[in-house]
Amino acid sequence: MFEQEIKIPASRAASYRINIGTDILGSLWPRIEADFAGYNKFVVTDENLVSAGHLQKLLGQNNVPAFIISPAGETSKNIDTAVSIIEAMEKAYLGRDTLVVALGGGTVGDIAGFAAAVFKRGVPVLQIPTTTVAQADSSVGGKTGVDSSLSKNAFGAFWHPAAVYIDVATLATLDDRQFRAGLVESVKHAIIADSEYFDFLESNLDAVLERKLDVLEKVAHWNCKIKGGVVEADPGEKNLRRILNYGHTVGHAVEAASGFKLLHGEAVAIGIIAAGLIEIEMKLAEPGRLERIRRILEKLNVPVTLPEDLADKDLIDLIKRDKKAVNKWPRFVLVSEIGQVYCKDEQYAVEVAPEVVKKILDKL
What we know:
The chain is an alpha/beta fold. The protein has helices at residues 28-35, 47-51, 54-59, 79-91, 106-118, 132-138, 176-182, 184-193, 195-209, 213-233, 248-257, 264-281, 287-299, 315-319, 354-363, and strands at residues 17-21, 40-46, 66-69, 98-104, 125-129, 143-146, 155-158, 163-167, 331-332, 335-337, 340-341, 350-351. The protein folds into two domains: 17-174, Rossmann fold; 190-363, Dehydroquinate synthase-like - alpha domain (Dehydroquinate synthase-like, alpha domain). The protein contains 15 helices and twelve strands. The strands form four sheets. A six-stranded parallel sheet has the order 1-8-5-4-2-3. The radius of gyration is 20 Å and the shape is globular. The model is unreliable at 1-10 (pLDDT under 50).
């Protein structure tokens, strides 16, 4: 038998620029055309971005094909929407020389990124996040995906963007609930990686909630520095990158159990409290630390307890579907102190006994 070994790099290069500024959306398109000359452009956005005028501001007088996701939000984050985007690109006779431009929040970025990853076996995607959750988290790192009827992000791919452009001025049109819920990811970053950032958020949360642009730029820079550093060290989420899932094991289950009536950040806030309760139960923290975290979340006006209509739902079954599960039971990301993730046996996602999880769910 003839054998030949052929070595192929495991993944494409994941290096890309993150550009952060204020009121830069209207001047972006000429730069995109210059930086990605030779590519046909295809924009994916949603009805909210059209209503807010952001699509028009980005494109100006340029005639560019676009797919408008409707309705906006998590309910459209499914395989049918992704297929519709791909078919729209096919109908426009687009090929592998296509640049997908994702203009919007986390849902838009996830769907557009996934569609780009699978269209013609992969075309580049450019992320222009316009929500707090997307600017803090989902636009950076290359995670893309859509939901199944059973769980979040059941279909997905690691597909790093060609570039990210963050205009904090786009947050001015974001409704208050979305704005506040998206900030939970910023709180998460501070908890897992930077106590100084946590102190900053405690001291400057009023200015953040007032949407002062200079403060929002600092928040964006801090978030990208934290997440970018983690992603650079572990682009494929083999170990360290799992710390970005702090609060998400319970959070994703709560989000799904609510039928996505809870926003992602709202569900993660509950998940962060759950993680804090586990830390206390496992003697990793004193109650005072959780109270500091709870105060910030309450100031964001996001839920910190399970809504009554979710209290009787079987969250355990949903938790078992978590992507960090081993032998049908998930691993949890925990912190030993604010700014420092707990590590056991060189692993950042650790086993928590089922009885402990059930106990803290009863306390939520």
